[in-house]
Amino acid sequence: xxxxxxxxYDRAGMFPGELVLPEGxxxxxxxxxxxxxxxxxxxxxxxxxxxDISDISFDRSVNWINIEGIHDLETIEEIGRLFKVHPLHLExxxxxxxxxxxxxxxNYLLVMIKMVYLSDKTEDGVEYEHLTVxxxxxxxxxxxxxxxxxxxxxxxxxxxxxGRIRKMGADYLAYALxxxxxxxxxxVPEKLGEQMETLxxxxxxxxxxxxxxxxxxxxxxxxxxxxxxxxLREVISxxxxxxxxxxxxxxxxxxxxxxxHAIQVADLIETSRDMLSGMTxxxxxxxxxxxxDTMKILTVxxxxxxxxxxxxxxxxxxxxxxxxxxxxxxxFAVISVMLVMxxxxxxxxxxxxxx
Amino acid sequence: xxxxxxxxYDRAGMFPGELVLPEGxxxxxxxxxxxxxxxxxxxxxxxxxxxDISDISFDRSVNWINIEGIHDLETIEEIGRLFKVHPLHLExxxxxxxxxxxxxxxNYLLVMIKMVYLSDKTEDGVEYEHLTVxxxxxxxxxxxxxxxxxxxxxxxxxxxxxGRIRKMGADYLAYALxxxxxxxxxxVPEKLGEQMETLxxxxxxxxxxxxxxxxxxxxxxxxxxxxxxxxLREVISxxxxxxxxxxxxxxxxxxxxxxxHAIQVADLIETSRDMLSGMTxxxxxxxxxxxxDTMKILTVxxxxxxxxxxxxxxxxxxxxxxxxxxxxxxxFAVISVMLVMxxxxxxxxxxxxxx
Amino acid sequence: xxxxxxxxYDRAGMFPGELVLPEGxxxxxxxxxxxxxxxxxxxxxxxxxxxDISDISFDRSVNWINIEGIHDLETIEEIGRLFKVHPLHLExxxxxxxxxxxxxxxNYLLVMIKMVYLSDKTEDGVEYEHLTVxxxxxxxxxxxxxxxxxxxxxxxxxxxxxGRIRKMGADYLAYALxxxxxxxxxxVPEKLGEQMETLxxxxxxxxxxxxxxxxxxxxxxxxxxxxxxxxLREVISxxxxxxxxxxxxxxxxxxxxxxxHAIQVADLIETSRDMLSGMTxxxxxxxxxxxxDTMKILTVxxxxxxxxxxxxxxxxxxxxxxxxxxxxxxxFAVISVMLVMxxxxxxxxxxxxxx
Amino acid sequence: xxxxxxxxYDRAGMFPGELVLPEGxxxxxxxxxxxxxxxxxxxxxxxxxxxDISDISFDRSVNWINIEGIHDLETIEEIGRLFKVHPLHLExxxxxxxxxxxxxxxNYLLVMIKMVYLSDKTEDGVEYEHLTVxxxxxxxxxxxxxxxxxxxxxxxxxxxxxGRIRKMGADYLAYALxxxxxxxxxxVPEKLGEQMETLxxxxxxxxxxxxxxxxxxxxxxxxxxxxxxxxLREVISxxxxxxxxxxxxxxxxxxxxxxxHAIQVADLIETSRDMLSGMTxxxxxxxxxxxxDTMKILTVxxxxxxxxxxxxxxxxxxxxxxxxxxxxxxxFAVISVMLVMxxxxxxxxxxxxxx
Amino acid sequence: xxxxxxxxYDRAGMFPGELVLPEGxxxxxxxxxxxxxxxxxxxxxxxxxxxDISDISFDRSVNWINIEGIHDLETIEEIGRLFKVHPLHLExxxxxxxxxxxxxxxNYLLVMIKMVYLSDKTEDGVEYEHLTVxxxxxxxxxxxxxxxxxxxxxxxxxxxxxGRIRKMGADYLAYALxxxxxxxxxxVPEKLGEQMETLxxxxxxxxxxxxxxxxxxxxxxxxxxxxxxxxLREVISxxxxxxxxxxxxxxxxxxxxxxxHAIQVADLIETSRDMLSGMTxxxxxxxxxxxxDTMKILTVxxxxxxxxxxxxxxxxxxxxxxxxxxxxxxxFAVISVMLVMxxxxxxxxxxxxxx
Lengths: 355, 355, 355, 355, 355
Fold this sequence. Notes:
homopentamer, 2 domains, seven-stranded mixed sheet, 52% helix
């Protein structure tokens, strides 16, 4: 497993505000799509040349520029110039290991957040994607690390003019995007919750190194998820209480709703961590129990047969003068004594509830 | 066990504020009952048609609309329209996995809370029910997930005009409902407390996988209960300090009382968690002790008989020239030596307090 | 052990502010004594009829009404009416499982607190008693659960006009009572501290289930004590910072002193909890050590004698052709080999510091 | 070990503000020394009669009255009267189990603090001494529990007029004393740190009950030290932010320095606690490892010799018809088989890396 | 390992504000280099005589004085006099065990911080260096404990007039230095993260004392790192919110960026600690599992062969009358019985999944 994929290190000593690709990444042309809409009207287009971005007519009420692939310095810089984004913020967009945060500038808001997917590609079954959302009066720009997102339902509603989204401003669109992301967070703890249910029985019946590794992996998952979700609460809370005019009063109630969902995921993660910690205890106790059972078997066998073997040994000695050996029923007497001993031992262990 | 029954996931990608049934639930007609009263007067009726709700005459001082079954979109929407409830709040009513929270609007207050029952239906013996309480100037609406509640004593007092409830407003009714719910919370830690008492003796005398599972189940119960109770403190505290005119000054002292009860349950849960954590330690130590006892039995038996068996083995050898074998009292001498050895071993273990 | 004696449950569904006896308690006449004093004057009397309470002349500067036994609804109600106590507060007086709290009304202050006694009656050796202190301009009322308290020294000082108590108001009397209670808290951690001292040696030398149970009992004691003391700090701090005119400025410095004592007990409890947690670790390690010692004895015995027994077994075989058996010194050679083996084993274990 | 030496208990029920000796202590004449100085002048004297204290001429700019031995009620009361100290504060001076605190009166400041010494007298190697520092406009009074302190360097500087101390006021002197005390705190974690270094190797190579006890003792030491240092941070912080005119603005920067040292000791203690907690884990794992090693020896010996002994036993049976016994090379064949078995077992354990 | 290298102890009793070398250090001439620049101009020089520092012409817009080696009292004092540094702060510069802190004076800011390097010289592979940064209107002074730093990229940019650094003031230079230091922090958790990845597999497959020591060492590393990073967050946050005019508004956004990086390192450390704590659990469980496996081997061997050996022992007895011995197929019958017993045992263990 890769614990820290932070490529922050490579920047050490670099000059602040300078836009360079993270080491090991090569420049890739981003896919830029623009959806512009008014309550009554809608245009969608894909832009292939970064320079064309400035050609978008911003006379529509709301524009959503979606950028898939952030390793395209030319596009990022073009947008930075067009929307007057602070160089440090452009750098933040590229820094995918950034923790969720919000930057509240006079002319725009910048929200950095993680998207979470269930995925078979990573060992832990969960994949994270860094997403930056730029919001100003009439434009929302989403910078996605890779193609593929959770925004299709929102695109459909905009196209179908369903719900109130077409009538609201850019802040509402931003809210809708955040809501979609946070709602998607529930997928992971739920999936892991299912795994925990099946795990619990296994721990008690058949604790193995494998079950232990599963607990450990789930814990690791929760730690990662927490790292993504925990700062989110503060981000949304700051967004909600921002005095920036970009966020309109009517949108605050919606943000509060996202906030309560974020709290709920955080709660779920904490509860899962408590549960997993309880499971580690359960595992340890279960292994101890099994070991005790092993010990008991050994002790029962040894306690019954060692003394008997000793008696047999005694009458196997070759002394010239051993009167018992010449008694007629000596052999049967000894066998009987042995049986009595064995049965009393068994009784003793029975009463101790070992067998 | 089901860890997370949250069906939040199914909403991922859904449009905010849209009223749909949670997946797997089918629409069911809710049972709507209305109690309207003034200090001197009282009417009760059951409404079978959602459209009839608007026919309730709101000239009575206080109206309590109780809705049993929330999977009835028509009724919910009708009420939403009638009482000007924000679409997001209507959605919250349906979201039964919501954590307790309060929403303070200008024209109404919305309190989301959990009812707790002891129940034989769930594995953990505890059942949770989501309850939404809507409060405005003259009306209290309770949205219950399922039929059956803890409000019968309150209904009886309203009917019998007992106590001051008939003379007070909607805020007092809301308080009375919250008080009944919080008082009922004490049932669970008390029941679990009883189980803990009997458990403690078992842990020391006969620690088994079953006792371990019981500790684990109690821990899980406490985690769930905490999840329901913890946010409640903040909810009631916010209600108490709300500057909304719906809550009258005279009701604040009552809310403070509910608050102190909520704190008390929270305290009880924390104490129980501490106790249960102590019990896990006790269990582990107890198992270790038992294992040590097992080891001691094995060691005593082995230490006494293995050397004796060796001696018997020696005199069982078939060497031609073994002088001891031909001594007259060789056999008795060896038996005596063995007895002396065995007794000194026993004495040694006696002094070590192993036997 | 009884974990939760809370009879709160029985109230679930009851009407707020209604005065009823907790289930299982029967009404008992309370013992009411009144001490009234001015700097120069003092009267003491016992009131046998609740109705007579209103006959107390309140022209004295300070009146202390002490009520022993709270299961006397008539007296409680009479006092409630006379001193205009809110019905909810009267109910609080009866609720002995209440956690420490303070209620600050315009015309009076109500402090709920626990008295702690060492006692042989309970399994844990500690007994708690609920005490409510009512304070207004000129009267202090103490509601005690049972007869017997820690106030005798204060009574004596009032009678002997010793110290400044006779010259001060009701708030100073209330302070003196609180101070006596808090000072008495130190009894318990000190007693438990003594037990911990003797326990520590036992853990290392002879860890048994009994020592474990003692640790567990001490932990439980600390949890209970903490429950009583922790909220106290906030109670006294609120009392000290109260803007209610009942508490005079000159008394604040005294309350601050009580506060610092309350902090000190809380500190002591936390320290004890840390110590006890360290002791559990010590116990577990000590048991592990003992088990290792047991294992070592077994291993030493087995490792020395099992190979020797094998050799003896070999020469006990009945093959026709075993040349060694017919050598003259075969027997002595084998015995010598065995001795050499045993001694080298002993040397090996000696060097491993096992014996 | 003595956990709680608090003699607070003996006061339970006593009257507040009354000056009595703690139980078990007898009145002892204190040693009172006075250093009075101006930038240019200095007098030192020892006062043998408490009544003489009032004869000190307070026309010097700064007076430092040092009192060694607090069990001298006459002196304490004389000083109390002379400097108008609140009776409760006089009582605090005698209460050596007091936790560090500050009392900010109009006419004086009272700082209660602990001095820490390495000492061979106590089991833990650390000794605590209660110190009260009284500060007013021109006088600093230090009440020490016992003779001997860490102030000699300060005395020397005053005498030698070295540094700025002679030019500064009483608040600077108080600071210098506090600084000397806090600097001395570092002695203990450093000494313990050295012990931890040697301990760590021992834990892994030779974990014994003794190493365990040492960890436990260090933990206890840290708990005690924390109890002395933790509240100190708040005390100094309060002193620094006090609005009392006794503390001059120019002294605040010095107090801030003491504060940062106090934080540093607190940090050191927390780090040590983390380390010690890690060491307990290390110890437990190390013991487990050793036990596993013991088990492995036993298992190797038993697994190799028990089957061989069985084979020898078989050919020691006395059946009339056992063809193998009469084969010429039967004996050698069996011995060979045994050797092969033993070697394959050894190989198996070798491959398992047990031997 | 050296836990506490704090030489604070040696100062105990020393006079505050006095500049002396830490014990065991001898005075060494520091290497002083000065870079002075305006947007258009740049001079660099090395100063060999402390007295020459005052000769630096401060008419340039920004001066960066870098001092390598702090054990040069003459230089420190000269700078102190020249820049009016408070004596206490000069002392702080020498105190290399100081925790990160900021001192906000009217005429300057003093930031104390740790530089972190990966190093083969220390046992833990990490080296810390104390760095003090003095900032005033036009000058930044860096006091380094030893030669060698992470500032070369910044030097190069100043020389090449790359980026905006030449156009900005001293506060921006200070920011650039802090940024370089904080960026370098990521090196350590990343390196340790890599070690953790390889460690995890080892724990499960081959847990040894060595793996345990590695976990312990990593934990110790994290504790040290945390000690360096944790207070840093507050330091930068205070710097960002400082109302001192030295920090210009335009620099605040850059400081906020450093702050978010500091938070990110702190996060990374906490996550690592969680992971390492999970690894200790994993280790303990893994050792328990291994021990259980050892026990199982022993039990299987003992349980199969001990009863068989007993049977062999029985027929090795020398009784005159043992009918079985004379049966023709007695021997084969017994051998068969033994085989059947052995196979049923094997089957039993097979079904228990032990073999």
